[in-house]
């Protein structure tokens, strides 16, 4: 089987690229997906449906369009990697984790030791905690590889 | 019917008490529930199961015991109120929102205008956004009241 | 057992009252519920959350608050009665019928012979078609009564 | 992934063709499906199973055969577009919307500003409201496209 | 807990009464339910909704009203007893067995040795096969009783 | 899409072959499946697992092996055709109908007019009643064909 | 709310009694349930349905009757305690753990340190590992108690 | 269709190889999967995520990584074969059986006559009990083969 891997969270470092490249190097049979990771285009996703004076509704329209993509891809994922950086609120990443937990989709968190405590509820439902993209790649290799020949 | 209302999120202000008191004043037939909101006792919930040198595992044990309570109560809730304050990461509140969304449990967010943007994904799946406990009480009154006599 | 009966649709005639009174006369053990049937208060349900210039968003906020009530009550219903009058679009009633069908909640339609054709898809998933509140009461009596003594 | 898009509703204008052509122009990887949109053949779908004197049962037989197709295709859809025109009852379109909502299939409505108010319950569960086929095509492009390269 | 027991099948002997009486004698905390077991009233259940010339549609209307009752009660049952006599087709009893199997509701069959072979598929999904109402009562006593004091 | 069609019931006439041939003639994109329709081999399916003195257990072992096949194929079916002949008990066919109903898999019955009454509960949950394989083929063609070009 | 607690596993020590007594002492609002813990009566549960020469079928009949009770009670449980002693195979306890995991029912294991390694898969899906009935009682108190007053 | 077969349990004999070879010889269209069957690499699966002093947590991390693989593969399986040898606790195999039962995935047990009694609960939910890999291959051939030509 080919594994579907959803990559959720932080968009300011190249962790996605590192995981995808690492999996490619190992020849893992995997398909990766993500939300739109371009901040500006994500925020303006709904603008073509009509201008809004109220920033709440502008955000609302864009966030709902993004949600179509996100929920569809998460529901098709065999595993999700959820990344928390050291800046910003990143409530969408924690939301995705709760969504995965309730849908029985296993997820692995990727974050530094410094934020263990505020992430303890998110980690409590995770299948593993990784600190580097390399560790995530090794997890993906391990769970997708069959028994040793 | 009596409505089960789950109150998730911030523990540093008295928003829970205000909502519960407001509902009582109106005589609403509701049962409120929450996670353990005492910070210290929540963090040490698992300590009686044995000491841990590693803070990750100490947090892990406590968070899992808290999760038994939280998930059970959310699954029994007819509606959840999810509160975000202006401080701290509050990833557990966003996690609860995602968990509600996936379980088809309607939720209302309660937060200030200043954090609309980082909460846009959480608000996109919410049934309403309130800015005060009084508005939440009015929502609870409205949804639970039958047609006007 | 006591049956939960959800009454959906038209709000301009007294069909709800007739059904409830008929069931009471027969002493049926039933609890009836409905959306807010007061048109003006239903339309303004969300106004207390802040004014909207845009009528779409005003409607949106109120409709979502109404949806909390409607979906919760439908999911608890053992049976729904869905009424179509001869005026107005009544798309919410047809929406409720589709929602019941997908949730495997049996429903009975209540409408005149004149609108059989446009309602054929809604009737195709119904358990019965009634033309009068009296027929609905007889259906409720029949399905809730145990075997003849 | 290839997206399955279900097109529900009005059959008197060429909105389906415009969306399909627009998606083809952009090279979107999508499969579109619909109910039988030929009115006469849809109404007579069940006639070969035996004549009916009673128009209710004639409609019933045809509507149930149509329902086999409709429900199967909706359940396989990743997204539905639900179109309301300015004429006719179109209760089947609202029924499909309720069916999608209960099955957690995201849908986008396509209708004019003039019918916002009667559609408020249908729009309240939608992920977006579009006013033109071009906007729908842009939505489909956006949700199905991966992160910018 | 009180157990809900659904009694499905044959209506020409007093097996229901024997089970109910046996459970009462033992003081078991159980609530029994059934379809309408009065043959004539069951067949005419839908007649009050309008006369039918076609016997298929007369049966159809009555069977659908009966189905409201049957499916609701089966879904609430903790256990079903499904009885096959030595006469008649009794396809409704086998239908109920398949419905229970798919809903993960345990059922016990009650029938003579002479019809083991034609019932082998129905028995294959049953939790037990009983040959007398007395055996059924003993089963109900056993599964509902707590550990010996 | 290709449709999966499960053919359940009577094994003494060539109705399966007629439907499969009819679909092939029309070039329908369909995959047909069935239980093992060879009576002797079906009855002896479990014999290789060890001899049984007791005919109940011999039947039980074979029926459970057949059930692995039947339930797997029904769960993958988009539609089932359930055939009742004029002889034998055929409780397995009625069981399959109940199983389909509970799994929300649409089914069409195929039987003569003479057995309408005993099949009324099975027909009440069916999407159509056909009296000939030719009618079934027409149904399959209709539901699987897209809108007229 | 009152919590339903299912107690699974070892029957040779008084761990059940200790937990029940401990909860009573604290006045916890809980209802405890178990399989039949009387070994001889559990093994002979099906004997009244007819003698078996073959020990496999004797065990089979009794185990299925026990399963009616066990699965019904587990599905109603809010939490399960699963106890492994130092003797016997106890495969039924591990089976119950897998059944809880798949049904999203949180469970706590109760076992000595000496069997950590063979139980690692069972513990991996558990919410906590306890080594004494006293620890289990403290867990039950903690998860069922509301926020500190 | 191609069948997905999950092979769970004992890792010290070549039963997996025998089944896979037997299926290949018969040309069965099947895909087999397993947990990591290499004992040492399975136990150390989580070591790359950081060293643990506590053996419970070392086991925990590895078991959770294994669980990602196991649960994903079981959920995709059409049938599982669950093997119990004559040594070791093998609680993971019984756990998998309970997990299959709750997920409605049919399974066949493979074990000697000597352990019938302790496995009676596991066998009670199985679709068959086999004593040799050859019998399993015959079961796989039978359930996957279509009706005799």
Of all chain pairs, the largest interface belongs to: A-B, 40 and 40 residues
Per DSSP, the total helix count of chain A is: 6
List segments of chain A where confidence is low: pLDDT < 50 over at least 5 consecutive residues. Answer: none
One letter per element, helices H and strands E, the order of chain A comes to: EHEHHEHEHEH
Residue share in helix of chain A: 40-55%
What characterizes the major β-sheet of chain A?
A: 5 strands, parallel
Count of extended strands of chain A: 5
Shape of chain A: globular
Our Rg estimate of chain A from Cα atoms comes to 16 Å
Assembly classification: homooctamer
Give a concise summary:
Chain A is of the alpha/beta class. Chain A has helices at 15-25, 39-43, 55-76, 91-102, 120-124, 133-144; strands at 3-9, 30-34, 79-83, 107-110, 128-130.
Model description:
Eight copies of one chain form a homooctamer. In chain A, strands 2-1-3-4-5 form a five-stranded parallel sheet, sandwiched between helices. Chain A is 45% helix and 16% strand. In chain A, α1 (15-25) packs across α6 (133-144). The longest helix of chain A is centred in the middle third of the chain and has 22 residues, at 55-76. Chain A has helices at residues 15-25, 39-43, 55-76, 91-102, 120-124, 133-144, and strands at residues 3-9, 30-34, 79-83, 107-110, 128-130. In chain A, β4 (107-110), α5 and β5 form a beta-alpha-beta unit. The first copy, chain A, is built from six helices and five strands. By secondary structure, chain A is of the alpha/beta class. Chain A binds chain D through residues 16, 31, 33-38, 41, 45-46, 48-50, 61, 64-65, 67-69, 71-72, 76, and chain D through 1, 3, 78-79, 106, 127-131, 135, 138-139, 142-148.
